[in-house]
Amino acid sequence: MEVLQLLVSGISQGCVYGLIALGFVLIYKATEMVNFAQGDLMMLGAFFAYTYLNLMELHFLVALPLTIFTMAILGAFTERVMIRPMIGEPHFSVLMLTIGLGFILRAAAGAIWGNEPRSLDLPYAGGVIDLGGLIIGYENLVIVIGTAMLCTLLFLFFRFTRLGIAMQAASQNQLAAFYVGIPVKRIYSLVWAISAGISAVAGILVAPVSLIDPLIGFIGIKAFAAAIVGGFGSLPGAIVGGLIIGIVEQFAGLYLPTGFSDVSAYVILLVMLLIRPEGIFATMQQKKV
pTM for the whole thing? Predict the structure, then answer.
C-alpha cells in the first residue's frame, strides 16, 4: 500500500512537470528556441488565478478560462515584443533573454502579490478518496484528469485542425511553410500563447498541493530535465519524462537518504545524457523536408 501511495503522489507531481515540459517542447519545436522562463509563466498563471478566485471572488468555472486567456495574451505579447526581434540572433542570446525574463517575472510577482506563500480557494481542495487504505486527494485526482484532458485536446488540435497542422508544418520546415502561405510569424505568436496557457493550467493544478509564491517557478528546471529525458522535441516524451521524474522523486524521498529526492531529477537527467542523449522519444533532430 505504501508503494501505491507513493506511486499516486509521483504520478500527480509528474503530471505537473510534464505540463510545464510541454511548454518547453512546443516552443522548441516551432521556433528552435528554449524558453527558460516557462516555470515562471506557470507561477504567474497561478497568481492570476489567485487574483480571480481569491481577490475578485469569481466562480472557478469563470476564473479558469479567464486565467488561461490572460496568460495566452501575455505569451503572445512576450513573443511579439521580446522574442520576435531576436529572430536570427544566436540561440544563446535568446536563452539569456528568457532567463532574464524569468528574473523580471519573479520580481514583478513579488512586487504585486508579495513574497508570502498563498493558497487558492478551489472547490475541490482538501477532499480525499479512501480506497481500502489508499488515500487519493481530490487535488491529485484533478491533476491527473486535467493533464489527460489537456493532452487529449492538444492531440486533437494538432491532428485534425487546419491551424494545428499548419503549426506542425511550420515546425518541420519554416521556409517551406512560408512559401505555401502559412503565416509563420503568427504561428509563432500562437505557439507562445498556447505554451503560456498550458503553464497557467499547470499553475492552477499545482497550487493546492504546493502554495504559491514567486519562487515556485523554479520547478521549471525539473520540467526542463523532464523534457530532455523524454526527448526534447516530443510532446508525448514531455509527459513521460515528467512522470518518470515525479515517480522517482517520491520513492527517492522515502527510500534514499535525506536530500536525494531534490536532486533525483538531475541524476536521471545525467544518466539519460550518458546512455541516450536524444531522450526516450528521439525526435528532436528528425525534421521532414
Answer: 0.88
